[in-house]
Design a protein that fits this description.
- The complex is a heterodimer of chains A (78) and B (169).
- Chain A has 78 residues and is an alpha+beta fold.
- Chain A contains 2 helices and 4 strands, in the order E-H-E-H-E-E.
- A 4-stranded mixed sheet of chain A has the order 1-2-4-3, covered by helices on one side.
- Chain A is globular.
- In chain B, helix 1 packs parallel to helix 5.
- Chain B is an alpha/beta fold and 169 residues long.
- The chains are: A alpha+beta (78), B alpha/beta (169).
- The interface between A and B is medium-sized, with 16 and 13 residues.
Chain lengths: 78, 169
């Protein structure tokens, strides 16, 4: 998986629901439209949760990948 | 952007396990850009106090798994077969079970109730304390954290009537 150009990185490794979503929201709020956030999590539930969250908030899940139990999300602020 | 979705919750219980669902759902709904109000009534009202003393209640809760927050993974994942009758009747067991549960939560990266509550306040979740319960239990507004509104059933219902999600917890 190629690295996608991103402006911010958020480490949510080791955190359980709902913290990855709450921290992602807080970070995205501090970014400007079009910027990309790279978020890393280890909570398997975050796969479904990030999907649901982007769907509801209109931010775009550009890509998702998995690398040795770490889930990597690239989210573009709408 | 269309009108935001709304969620109305009633938090009626004051044990640690029951304290989580309203704060998790409220903070997450706010993160999903919903308008949220939580009405705290009866034992749920204690969750608005400055110092939350919520404990787990092993008595009458035979489904509660007893976990040890220390040692190797296999040891931590083991469910200790402690009879409910014993858990409910040994003095101080509640305190021990509560600290074990809190430690396990921390190990698993779960936020504390206080953290989730702070996030709710930061994200404009409306926290409403039930006036009637306050009178019954002798709670004062000063006992609660800043930012709490006080109201009654009609206050909650007015918000709930306009809400897309309503849950009683």
């Amino acid at each position: 998986m190629n690295e996608i150009v991103h402006e911010k990185v958020l480490d949510c490794k080791g955190l359980s629901c709902p913290l990855p979503i709450l921290k992602t929201k807080k970070q995205i709020d501090n970014m400007i439209s079009g910027q990309v956030l790279k978020m890393e999590a280890t909570d398997p539930g975050s796969v479904s949760d990030v999907n649901a969250w982007t769907k509801r908030t209109g931010n775009e899940l550009v890509s998702r990948s998995e690398n040795s139990d770490i889930y990597i999300f690239y989210i573009k602020k709408s | 952007m269309s009108e935001p979705k709304k969620m109305a919750l009633i938090a009626s219980k004051g044990t640690l396990d029951w304290a989580y669902p309203p704060f998790i759902l409220a903070s997450t709904a706010a993160a999903m850009e919903m308008d949220v109000a939580v009405f705290f009534t009866f034992y749920g009202l204690t969750l608005l106090k400055k110092d939350i003393k919520a404990k787990v209640a092993p008595a009458t809760n035979p489904a509660m798994p007893m976990k040890m927050p220390i040692g190797p993974k296999g040891f931590q994942d083991f469910e200790w077969p402690i009879p409910n009758l014993l858990m409910g009747n040994v003095p101080g067991f509640e305190t021990v079970a509560t600290s074990l549960m809190k430690k396990t939560f921390k190990n698993k990266g779960v936020a504390t109730i206080e953290e989730l509550r702070d996030i709710c306040l930061e994200t404009d979740v409306k926290l409403i304390g039930c006036q009637m319960t306050m009178d019954v239990f002798g709670f004062k507004k000063d006992d609660f954290i800043d930012g709490v509104d006080i109201g009654g059933a009609a206050t909650f219902l007015e918000f709930a009537a306009e809400s897309d999600i309503q849950l009683f917890i």
